[in-house]
Amino acid sequence: MPSHLTRSVFRRLLADQPIIHRACLRRRRYCSLAPASALLGGPTRQHVVASIPHRQRRHFLNFNIFGSKREAKEPDMDPGIDKMMELAKRQRMDARMPSVEDALEAVRLFLKHKRRKDQPITDSQARLVHQSLQYCFESIDALPMDGEHVQRDAEELRSLAREVAKHLSVTTTRTTASNEHVQFLWFLYSRASSHGFRRLKRATILPLVHMLSLTGSSHAARDLVLQHEPAFSPSDKTRQPAIAREEEGDQPDLPEDDRSTMLRLNQVTTSWATVLNGFVTEKNVAEVHSTMEMIQQRKCDNHRNVPRAMLLFAMQQKDPEALKHWWMKYRSATADVNERKVLQDAVASQFYEVLMWCLKENQLQLGHEVVRGEMAKNPLKPCWDAVFVWAAGTKKSVDEIGRMMTVMEKSNEDIADREAWRQPDVVTINALVDFAVSQNDPYMAERFIALGRERNIEPNARTFALQMDYRLSVGDVDGALVAYKGLVEHRNAQIEEESFTEDVGAINRLIVALSGTQRHDFDTIMNVAMDLADRRAPFEANTVSTLALLHLARDEEDDATDLLNTHSYHFASTERTHVRDEIVKFALDPKTPTRRAWQSYNIIRDIFDETPRDQRTELMTSFFNRERADMGVRVFQHMRAHSRADTIPTVDTYVAIFMGLAKLRDIDSVEIVHNLLKLDFNITVTTYLRNALIIAYTAGDKGRKALGFWDDIVKSKEGPSYNSIHVALRACENSPFGDLRAKELWSLLRRRNVELDQPLWASYVAALAGNGDNDTAISTVEEAEANGQLDVEVFLLGSLMGGANGQMKQEEIEAWAKEKYSAQWEELERLGFETDIAGTRTFNIDRRVSP
Q1: Nearest to 682 by CA among 619, 640, 713, 633
Q2: Are residues 30 and 87 in the same domain?
Q3: Are strands 833-835 and 841-843 parallel, antiparallel or unpaired?
Q4: What residue stretch is flagged as signal peptide (predicted)?
Q5: Which domain holds residue 101?
Q6: Are 115 and 165 in contact (CB under 8 A)?
Q7: How many C-beta neighbours within 10 Å does residue 416 have?
Q8: How far apart are CA 699 and CA 694, in angstroms?
Q9: Is the model more confident about 521 or about 547?
Q10: 96 and 50 in one domain?
Q11: pTM for the complete prediction?
């Protein structure tokens, strides 16, 4: 056959004839030429396959009137993330890895985007960058370093690692720091230390100290500073050579002294202040004092970050004397604030926090002293704003605060530079409104807004955002919506777009509040959401989950998918977990229709690939509870095809699906899953799993096959459990000639002196009755009772009735029980029963067996 095909193909090629296949898309062209050749009397070949032209056909129900199916929006990810996710997936699957150049390019694109947007790196993104850079380091290690290309990649890799570490140090805050960031920086630090890369090591120390302090590991941060700080009080002659050596590059060098100068001398104070602030945040009093002693020994306590940390510590300890002392130290360290504009907001913020603490702790005298000291220095405008808030906190009226503003304006007469004049503005009004909101006083907030209008100070976006917040805080959703409309009108009236974005948080909260009420329609909610989307403003996790559930409740699966694809990949892992948990909760809700639950599951599977095994198992079980075995099996198959070790099925997962299928008596699905189990090399079959197989096959009326697993249990090294005996007896109850196997099993138990409790007796006599042997079952009960081996009670009688096969057999047991154990029978009847179409009764007792 192959040789014939070869001859045929070559003959057609030599004859300049086309090779035509039935499924060829170009056959129509050749077919259209064939009739023309025949009409012109052209030559024909015996090997030419006759082709019949196919005409286009339209069927009645195949008109293109419904349009093409809408395609889901592609996931919106930061550049390079998709490549790093693919790399991580290939590592899990032991598949062919991408090249080092591709991995470096992915990290480079990602870092460039983050630096341009000035965005922090989330914990999930840090994990991906960690995996990518670790892969690059290990791949380069496996190559000979004599090649120019390899050396260039190695240098580029180290440079990229330094840039990532620097970006982490600048953008990560206490709310965004995580253990993933710490592990990544520890990897870079360990890598640099073990390979002698001095520049990389120096670039990672400060970010690592910063991250450790943010994540509650200040002890480790302090140890790192002690290890790498310059020699204690070195002379200038010893400093310069050390610093010069640092600039030599990342070439491996001789082992360093434990007191090496890996940190620049001007960075030591910052490191110590970071460690001190970490201990203060952890509220570790003893370590705060010991760290402060170390700082004072090193003459580093004049840095402004040190007294700032101690100010926070004094507030925590509610120590007014310490607060006064450290406030004076802080103002001394920031005496050049007028010359350094970057410090103005920091000083004003610290001034505001001190005054608010004095109000909270009723330290009014101390607060007045702080205010007098600041006013004597001709304070800057931000400090004046804090003084106005202090006046409001000390019960000054709105009119009095207005007169204070007039005093501030008159003080400008002594300032020659008009640009340095202090004028009340919308920032001043917003600070007062914010204070009123914190005091739960909406009336005061409105009075301050009116005060601003009296001075021709119009509200800005932050003012409207504050209005929305305090109205939402009292449950006035309609009032918050009115404030939002005022915000929109204000924005539309602006000639130049404001750069302020703090209203984004208030709008997010408004969307959630609108969705939680029944008074506002869907269009109103979506109009507010579209405003955020048009501005390309970030959606909070709570907003995304709320809108996604709103779409799912309206059967708008595509809209929910687009929403999640747009926002979920920019969230940190905790935020993604929140969104995922809300959708899982919606899918698990029994009130949710099955179709919507399945849509929700598909969204979870497609977008939240990290969904853990436990939640997937819950979803699988919920579909069994909805009597949809096909959906439950599909969920299981998706788990089995996954590449993550924390997602693929375990023994518990197999047991869960067998128990769910047993409940539905779906023997076909049981056999499918059993075949998958045979192919799963990750699973070690245990007694627990075999018990579940017995239950599943017994429920599917294949008790004889189920008893084969009992034989496997007996032969296994682990052996049977008490549950194994129960499920085996239940299999005997539902299999032909099962009474014989039950008697063999019972004899085995007696020979091995197994303790026979009441439930075992009930299972045994039910197995006898299940095969129609009522006489043996009854005589066994009477004999055991006479020997004091069991007490006849409700559960035993109910088990006998449940095992009896058919109405007539049940009537025999009923007559015997009424005569012999009338009291127990009456108690059983009071529990109630259900009758099937054949007249067989099932009493309301729990005969379920577990693996």
Answers
A1: 640
A2: no
A3: antiparallel
A4: none
A5: 81-171
A6: no
A7: 8
A8: 9
A9: 547
A10: no
A11: 0.83
